């Protein structure tokens, strides 16, 4: 996803449009670091090579608290950024 598409998708959501760039970066960083915790409760039929469509409730709650947005907004932001977050550890080395 290119940056323009990312920001356009975020602007379509009222709460996400007001989110700071720092909080967006924090969300992506934590989501990337929590990859093992995100995949662990998924059914064994879900590939670990691609981000799951739905976050576990505990991860949604944690990310909601970390970046101070509603759980519904976490779900929306995950839908927009899940591929970036999933690739984060591979792209950045240590996470």
Describe this structure in words.
- The chain is an all-alpha fold and 95 residues long.
- Helix content is 67%, strand content 0%.
- The chain starts with a helix and ends with a helix.
- Mean pLDDT is 89; it is low at 91-95.
Identify the quaternary structure here. single chain
**Tally of contiguous helical segments:** 6
H-E string: HHHHHH
DSSP helix fraction: 55-70%
Overall geometry: globular
What class, by secondary structure content? mainly alpha
Flag low-confidence runs: 91-95
The main pleated sheet reads as: none
User: Gyration radius, to the nearest Å?
Assistant: 13 Å
N-end to C-end Cα span? 19 Å
> How many beta-strand elements?
0
Observed structural traits:
single chain, mainly alpha, 95 residues, disordered C terminus
Structure described in brief:
The chain has helices at residues 3-11, 14-17, 21-33, 35-39, 57-67, 71-92. With 95 residues, the chain is mainly alpha-helical.
């Amino acid at each position: 996803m290119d940056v323009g598409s990312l920001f356009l998708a975020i602007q379509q959501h009222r709460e996400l449009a007001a989110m700071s760039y720092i909080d967006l970066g924090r969300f992506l960083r934590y989501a990337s670091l929590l990859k093992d915790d995100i995949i662990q409760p998924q059914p064994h039929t879900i590939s670990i090579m691609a981000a799951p469509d739905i976050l576990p409730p505990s991860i949604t709650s944690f990310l909601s608290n970390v970046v101070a947005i509603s759980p519904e907004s976490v779900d929306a932001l995950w839908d927009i950024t899940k591929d970036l977050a999933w690739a984060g550890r591979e792209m950045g080395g240590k996470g």
